[in-house]
Specification:
It contains 16 helices and eleven strands. It has two domains: 136 residues, DNAb Helicase, Chain A; 261 residues, Rossmann fold. 33% of the residues are buried. α1 packs parallel to α3.
Length: 432
């Protein structure tokens, strides 16, 4: 629908703001004075906002004009304001239509105006190559919306709250690769959460994410795998092996069997869908991920339940000029923002520092200055493996952090490196 942001629309904003405090409060976070095309309208709205900020009420006409006179100076001619105030007061309210419809128009008016300002302000930033600030301006403009979800009324929503909890346990949880971890999480992780797998280079971070993706597919979830290091085809081949149990080196010679087993997998889990997207290493940032989600929704009718980002350090922060540890924390915060905004679960992988290979059990101590990236997430595990364990196809998973379950315990694992499958040894043992 095309909206006409005419003079009457802008007068309508002032008309309803003057006569309804409730209406003004609904738009106060959306509309800024500079969005109005005419200075008289902008100054009226600025005066209303200023008056409300001080007195928590909407000014009467006399007070409104006094606020403007105080701002403009006593000698200023206010005849234009008198005339425009008369037009506002006598406008036909029927042209505004239904309030909710008008609020939708205002939301789009505010978003369009913010985008115009973002583009205008970006010109000077572009000359100085301040791309991070430009991206922030544009992102903030695109995110403008009416927040109709105002939270829960604690004492009034007891039954609803526990009904949601039951639903989470039964249908909206995401199991981890290993059953013992899922049990400690009351069925698994939830949407709007960020989970991390931590390991030194070459120890199995990508392998874990692929297994986690297959686990989600087996729960009939829609999965988006974002690779920042390996090609889409290479990642797809890893999924091939884990889903079909055909060894990596035998895939090309077993295409008939591969197709048959993938067909059986799809029949068994008909709602499970997988998209794999490769971004150039070190060039993509969280806004590229946001854009991808929009395009997938518009062109593929695909809205993921879980995103797997391989891996954190290969994303670029939206803000330039940060120290390495600050950049990693920023990226972690942005990934969790995606999880909350889109109501999805986000898994990512991250590397330890140099000491990660030397210790028997990786804890947050091996993150050093980059601990901030773990502080943001809801769940974090580390993958631990000595050379002897590698030779024997063994590994230990350590739960570093869990907001909603047991933490600081170890799960012994076995790895089939031919099919890239990970499985849990039973029983698991508690770390000292």
């Amino acid at each position: 629908m095309k909206y006409d942001f005419s003079d009457n629309i802008q007068r309508g904003i002032l008309f309803l703001s003057k006569y309804s405090k409730d209406f003004y409060l609904q738009i106060a976070s959306l509309v800024k004075p500079e969005y109005f095309e005419f200075p008289v309208h902008a100054n009226f709205y600025r005066a209303i906002s200023s008056y409300y900020g001080e007195y928590r009420d909407i000014p009467k006409d006399l007070h409104l004009l006094e606020c403007i006179k105080e701002e403009k100076g006593p000698s200023e001619d206010l005849s234009d304001y008198d005339d425009e105030l008369h037009r506002i007061n006598t406008m036909d309210a029927s042209c505004i239509g239904h309030t909710d419809f008008f609020l939708d128009i205002i939301e789009k008016f505010a978003r369009r105006s913010a985008m115009k300002d973002a583009i205008t302000n970006s010109i000077g930033l572009l000359k100085d190559d301040r791309m991070g600030e430009i991206e922030t301006l544009v992102r903030d403009a695109l995110c403008i919306n009416r927040n109709v979800d105002l939270g829960q009324t604690y004492f009034n929503d007891v039954l609803e709250r526990f009904e949601r909890s039951l639903q989470d346990t039964t249908g909206n949880r995401f199991a981890t690769v290993f059953d013992s971890l899922s049990r400690e999480l009351d069925g698994g992780l939830s949407a709007k959460e960020l989970a991390m797998v931590v390991a030194p280079p070459g120890v199995g971070k990508s392998l874990y994410l692929v297994n986690q993706g297959v686990k989600a597919l087996m729960e009939n979830k829609k999965v988006l795998y974002i690779s920042l290091e390996m090609s889409e085809d290479k990642i797809a081949q890893r999924f091939d092996s884990v889903m079909t149990l055909i060894a990596q080196k035998e895939l090309k010679q077993s295409l008939g069997l591969l197709q048959k087993r993938l067909g059986l997998f799809s029949e068994k889990f008909p709602n499970g869908q997988l998209m794999i997207k490769e971004f150039p290493t070190g060039l993509a940032n969280i806004n590229d991920v946001r854009s991808l989600l929009v395009q997938l929704r518009n062109y593929e009718d695909f809205s993921p339940d879980v995103i797997l980002v391989d891996y954190l350090e290969l994303l670029r922060p939206t803000r330039e000029g940060l120290a390495e540890y600050q950049a990693q924390q920023r990226i972690s915060e942005e990934l969790r923002g995606i999880a909350v905004e889109s109501n999805i679960l986000v898994w990512t992988a991250t590397q330890t520092n140099r000491q990660g290979r030397a210790v028997k059990l990786i804890t947050d101590s091996e993150l050093a200055d980059a601990y901030g990236k773990i502080r943001t997430c809801d769940y974090a595990i580390s993958l631990n493996q000595s050379e002897e364990e590698f030779d024997e196809g063994q590994m230990r998973c350590y739960v570093m952090k869990s907001r909603n379950g047991k933490q600081r315990f170890v799960v012994p694992l076995t790895i089939d490196y031919s099919t890239l499958t990970m499985s849990e040894c039973d029983p698991y043992e508690t770390a000292e």
